[in-house]
Amino acid sequence: MTYRTTLSRTWWLKHNAFKAYMLREATVLPLTFFILCLVSGVYCLWQGESQWNHWQTAMGQPWVLAVNLLAFFASLFHAWTFFQLFPRVMPIRMGHISVPANVLIAGQWAAVLSVMVLFSWLFWGKL
Amino acid sequence: MKTIHITRYLPESSEIPFVQQFDIPADDSTSVLDALNYIKEELDPSLSFRWSCRMAICGSCGLMVNGKPKLGCKTFLRDYQENITLQPLAHLPVERDLIVDMDVFLTHLEAVKPYLISDDSLSTEPNKQTPTQMAKYQQFSDCINCGLCYSACPQFGLNPEFLGPAAITLAHRYNLDSRDHGKAQRMPLLNTEEGAWSCTFVGFCSEVCPKKVDPAAAVNQSKVESAKDMIIQLFKGNL
Amino acid sequence: MNDRTTENMTIKPKKNHRSSEPVWWALFSAGGVCFAVFIPTAILFFGFLQPLGLIDFSYSQAHNWFFGFWGLMFSGAFIILPGFHAAHRIRHGLHDLKVQRHGLIKVICYGLAGLISLLTLGIWFTGIIS
Ligand code: SF4
Ligand code: FES
After folding, report:
1. Are B107 and B83 in contact (CB under 8 A)?
2. Of C83, C37, B163, B11, which is closest to residue A111 (Cα–Cα)?
3. Residue C3 confidence class, pLDDT cut points 50, 70, 90
4. What is the pLDDT along chain B (239 residues), one digit of tens a residue?
5. Which pTM was predicted?
C-alpha cells in the first residue's frame, strides 16, 4: 500500500524555480501578439497606401504600445534565458578546449546588438 | 532548538498521511539526517527513513526539505529558519514515512542499457581512452542515483512514463564514451515521446542535483542526438 | 503487503515509436534564436519608433523592401519561425497546465502557425509577381 501525491494544475505556483519557468514559457504570449501585428502590417502593405497608414496609426494606439512594451521585455527575458541554455545544449569544443559558456553568451548578446545597429543604419543611414 | 514537521505515513494504522512535529536541539553541524536519527533514537523509534553513507555518496537519503529535493546528509539545519518541513521525495509512491518506492526510477535506469557495449570483435586488447575522450562524458558519470532530479522534474510528475533526467543522462554518458558501441541500441528509446522528448528544459533537476551532474544539459544534448538520428535514418531510407 | 495502489506507475512495454518532436523542436529552436536576436529590434523599430514618428517608413519604401528578397528573409525570421516557436511553447504549456488533449492541441497550435506562414508567404508571393 502506497500513496502518491499528484500534481495539481497550479503545481508551478509552489516554487520560485517553477514560476520562473512558467514566466519564460509565457513570453510567447506577448510575442504572439507582436507577430500578429507584423502579419497585419504585411497585409496592409499589400492592400495599399491608405491601409498602410491605417496600420501605422493602429500601432500607435496606447494599448497596442503597452502590449508591445510587454513584448519587448518578454523578448529580452527570453533572450536572457535562451542564451544561457544554448551552451548547455550545444557545447562547442575547439580541439582540446571547450569554449567557455560566458564567451558563447556574450557572443549571442553581440548578435542582438548588431541587429540593432544594422536597423539603425538602415533607417537613419548614418550613425 | 529547531522545529521539524515531518509528513508521516504508517499504512498499518492509517491510510492517510499526517504531519508530526518534533523539537530538535541543533548546532552548526547538525544535518537533516542527524536530526532524523536523533528523533528515531530519542523521541520516536517508529520513524522510518533511508540512509547509509552519510557523506553524499550512496544516494539513499533523499527527501523534500521545505519543498525542495535534498540529500538529508548534505543539508544542514543551520541554513534554515526555526521551522523545517520534511516530506518524502515528490512524484514517487510513498511506502511509509520518508521511504519511497524507487522501482520506477530503477526500471528507467535499467532500460537505457547503462553499461559499455562492445563491438563484436573478440579483441583482448584493453580499452584505451585519452583524457580528452574521457572529458566528454566525465561530468555525466558522477551520478549517485539519488533520484532527486525525478522529484524536481514536473514532466516526470505529470507523466511517470517519462524516462526522466538521470536515466537519459546515463544513456548520454555511455553514448559519449569512446569505448562504447551501444548507441544504436539506446537511440530507439531516447527517440520516443517518453524518451528525451518529454523534457521542456525546466532545468530544476540540474539545480537540485547534489553532484553537479547537470542532467538537464544531458537530456537536451540527447535531443540533438535524437534529431541527428532522425536525419541519418531519413537519408538511409529507414523512415 | 504486495498489492500496490500504483498501477499507473508500472511501465508498459515500450513500443519505441519515434516521436515527430525533432521536427517541431528544430522549428522551435530556430524560432527561439529569432525571437531572441531579431524580435527585440523589431519591436523597438516597428512597435515604438515608427508609431511614435521617430523613424520615417513610407509606403513606397516599405513596399520596395518587403516585396523582394529581404521580404522573404523578414517573413522567415520575424514571423514564421517565431510563430512556430510560440506554437510549440503554447502546446507544451497547455500540457503543463494539465490541458492534455494532446492530438487536438498539436493540430491547433502548429496549424495556426502554419496558416500564418502560408498567409505571409502568399502575400509576399502575390506582391512579388504583381
Ligand atoms: S543526476 Fe544528480 S539528482 Fe539525478 S539521480 Fe543523479 S546525482 Fe541524483
Ligand atoms: S546517506 Fe548516503 S547520500 Fe546521504
Report:
1. no
2. C37
3. very low
4. 999 999 999 999 999 999 999 999 999 999 999 999 999 999 999 999 999 999 999 999 999 999 999 999 999 999 999 899 999 999 999 999 999 999 999 999 999 999 999 887 777 778 889 998 999 999 999 999 999 999 999 999 999 999 999 999 999 999 999 999 999 999 999 999 999 999 999 999 999 999 999 999 999 999 999 999 999 999 998 87
5. 0.93
Q: For residues C40, C42, C44 and C48, what is the CA-based torsion angle, rounded to 10 degrees?
A: -140
Are residues B194 and B229 part of one domain? yes
Burial B30-53, CB ≥16 within 10 A → b, else e: bbbbbbbbbbeeeeeeebbbbbee
CB distance B89 to ligand 1 below 6 Å? no
Q: How many domains does chain C have?
A: 1
- The domain that contains C95 carries what CATH number? 1.20.1300.10
Among B100, B124, B142, which residue terminates a domain? B100
CA-based radius of gyration for chain A? 21
Ligand of minimum distance to the alpha carbon of B170: 1
Please, which residues bridge with residue B70 across strands? Answer: B63
DSSP string, B28-83: TT-BHHHHHHHIIIII-TT-----S-SSSSS---EEEETTEEEEGGG-BGGGS-SE
Q: Do A89 and B224 touch (CB under 8 A)?
A: yes
Residues B199 and B227 in one domain: yes
Interface test with A, best of B89, B202, B204, B221 (most A CBs within 10 A): B202
Q: Do both B73 and B41 map to the same domain?
A: yes
Band (A127; pLDDT cuts 50, 70, 90): very low
Calculate how far, in angstroms, residue B9's C-alpha sits from the geometric centre of ligand 2.
22
Neighbouring subunits of B (3+ Cβ pairs under 8 A): A, C
Q: Tell me whether residue C13 is in a domain.
A: no
Report how far residue B2's alpha carbon sits from residue B35's, in angstroms, rounded to the nearest whole number.
10
- The proportion of chain C whose per-residue pLDDT surpasses 70, expressed as a percent, equals 88
CA distance C46 to C48: 6
Residues in chain A whose beta carbon is closer than 8 A to a beta carbon of chain B?
Answer: 1-7, 11-12, 14-15, 17-18, 21, 25, 85, 88-91, 96
Q: Domain extents for chain A?
A: 11-66
Q: Which residue(s) pair with A108 in the sheet?
A: none
> Domain containing B207: what range?
103-236
Determine, for residues C96 and B154 on separate chains, whether the beta-carbon distance falls below 8 Å.
yes
Spatial separation of the C-alpha atoms in residues B7 and A111, rounded to whole Å: 50
Tell me how far apart the alpha carbons of residues A118 and A110 are, in angstroms, rounded to a whole number: 12
For residue B104, list chain C residues with Cβ-Cβ distance below 8 A: 9, 11
Chains contacting chain A through 3 or more C-beta pairs under 8 A: B, C
Bridge-based pairing of strands B62-65 and B18-24 is unpaired
Residue C46 is assigned to a structural domain of this protein:
yes
